[in-house]
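Students often ask why we bother encoding 3D structure as a string. The short answer is that it lets us treat folding as translation between two languages. Here is a chain of 238 residues written in the first language.
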Amino acid sequence: MSGLRLSALSGLTGLAALSGCMGDPLPAQSPDFSVAAYPNWREEDQAYRFYPGDKFRMDVRTAPELSAELTIAPDGRITLPTVGPVMAAGQTVRQLQATLENIYGNELRDPAMVITPTEFGSQKVFVGGEVKQAGVFELPGEIDVLQAILLAGGWTNESQPTKVIVMRRQPGGEMMTRVVDVRNGLARRDLYDIGPLRRFDVVYVTRSPIADENLFVKQYIRDALPIDFSLFYDVARF
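And here it is in the second language, the structure alphabet:
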């Protein structure tokens, strides 16, 4: 009987402790990793720009025979009925609509049309360098540099996460390169400043200086000399 009472008292004590924990306030958040709401998409955010491989439908109200579903070629152009090739890559929906209405304005009294994206081309990023599984990864959404590295299995022990190179090609074709401190990026706002990755961005995790030194010693000293380096020596040989 005493054993049953002891068991019951232990159960009540556990429930009291649990209820006490549930009533306690949440622990204070770390100043280095503040809790913030996930960013909302806003009307003033930058609009999507067409890229090679994207598809859209062009509906001309006053001339349905000109309506068509078009695919942006690798060179960024589309081929319009009765017009020919026109550059479409790098333009937003509104910009492309204005461009096409201006072109057909020479043939139609009312060139008003509707541009509707129907399919988007491959959205991939390249992650390489000192990561566990370098490769090309499909963008699952708006992700940052750290999340891309995690897609590649995380950085290796020889990496230098304070110096991660991000390369991005601008709409004009020029290459933009930036070095991001991923390890301390939350505190330094590096990850916030560069924003989410874009299609075909390159994320390269550099090698740490000590890893380069170890590789040099291994390749040009240890492997080059016919000596088996060891912490133990056979004293009987001397």
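Translate back mentally: Helices lie at 2-23, 93-104, 145-151, 185-188, 190-194, 209-222. Keep this in mind for the problem set.
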